[in-house]
Design goal:
Layout (H helix, E strand, L loop, with lengths): L2 H31 L3 H38 L1 H13 L2 H24 L10 H7 L2 H34 L5 H13 L2 H11 L12 H29 L3 H10 L4 H12 L1 H17 L2 H5 L5 H11 L3 H24 L11
Length: 347
């Protein structure tokens, strides 16, 4: 190590030590102004201890700086060899392997634990118990139906809104993007308590008085929770096509707005729509808070109840949920290969 660098380092350290001493003294003055006699004595003792620590560190650094410089110079060959070896290591693959182990090891342990329901050896009895359970079939079917309803309602809201914002009012895009981000900011428990407050039996629209009304309320809640993902998926799809040119061509051929949306815009963004649909379905399958507080027989509530009363079935349910989620993500990646690659000419 260069001696001049050592001197610069020591000078910088002593400046930092001086600043530390000034801070300790200022802290002492504040304590003296705000304390009684006993507290003043304690403050003096604490300040003396801090000053001794600062002085001791400064002395140690000053004494051992030459030793550190010699050790640094002596290990130059070793450090160069380490750098040369490190340059040959495929660090991206190492990072990928560490991430894969971090993710898949708990999943593998969960899967292995789910097979231990019988003492005689591994068995898929936990999966059999889950899949044959009437409660599993009922709640899973219910969540799938609610998810499909949330997807349909979300598309009816998002596709026209994103289309008109992109075509007629691009200046409103920051506002729309902020509004669609609100479900990520507002916790679901706040959202559902607001729904219960607004649509309880004492309100003008008492949706919670009937199962149908509560199901509608749950569907609308899921539409709101999935809005950030659905809107961005659709908006990304609209960015890949020339909305202005397609709309003008359809208008020349005599198509109205509904026909343009259904027969021109929608087929061109079908991949983006399906991506948003799969994300919505994944959210609905695992959601617990809203369904629980609305007392609906959803799959997320079933998983929580099984986890509170069973040992091996919750692990099997966790693995099944991972499979469903990753199947949805795999479908998104598969559909992304068929997405249009041409960017729109206008923004």
């Amino acid at each position: 190590m260069n001696p001049s660098l050592i001197a610069i380092w020591q000078k910088g350290f002593f400046r930092a030590a001086t600043a530390g001493v000034v801070y300790v003294v200022a802290d002492l003055v504040v304590r003296l102004l705000e304390s009684n006699l006993d507290e003043i004595v304690d403050a003096l003792v604490a300040t003396l201890h801090d000053l001794l620590v600062v002085v001791a560190i400064a002395v140690v650094v000053t004494v051992f700086s030459p030793v550190i410089a010699r050790v640094w110079a002596a290990t130059a060959t070793f450090r160069a060899a380490v750098v040369k070896v490190g340059a040959k290591v495929p660090w991206p693959w190492v990072a990928f392997a560490i991430g894969a182990i971090y993710f898949f090891l708990p999943l593998a342990a969960t899967f292995e634990f789910s097979l231990r329901i019988q003492r005689t050896g591994y068995s898929f009895l936990a999966y059999t118990n889950v899949l044959q359970s009437p409660a599993f079939q009922q709640t899973f079917t219910y969540s799938i139906l609610v998810g499909i309803a949330a997807i349909v309602v979300g598309l009816l809201i998002v596709v026209p809104a994103a289309y008109f914002v992109r075509l007629r009012a691009p200046q409103l895009r920051p506002i729309i993007e902020f509004v669609t981000l609100l479900p990520l900011i507002i916790p679901p428990i706040i959202l559902v308590f607001g729904y219960i407050r607004l649509y309880s039996s004492s309100s003008i629209l008492p949706l919670t008085n009937s199962d149908v009304g509560t199901n509608i309320l749950l569907t609308l809640a899921y539409v709101a929770l999935a809005m950030p993902y659905m809107y961005r998926a659709v908006d990304t799809g609209l960015r890949t096509i020339d909305v202005q040119t397609l709309t003008e061509a359809a208008n020349i051929l005599g198509a109205n707005t509904a026909t343009i949306l259904i027969r021109v815009i929608f087929p061109n963004i079908i991949v983006a729509v399906l991506s948003g649909a799969f994300l919505t379905l994944a959210i609905v399958i695992g959601e617990f808070t809203v369904a629980s507080l609305l007392n609906r027989p959803a799959f997320g509530v079933y998983m929580q109840n099984v986890g509170a009363n069973r040992a091996f079935e919750p692990a099997a349910l966790a693995v099944i949920s991972f499979i469903i989620t990753w199947a949805a993500m795999g479908m998104i990646q598969l559909l992304a290969r068929f997405a249009p690659k041409t960017a729109a000419r206008t923004d």
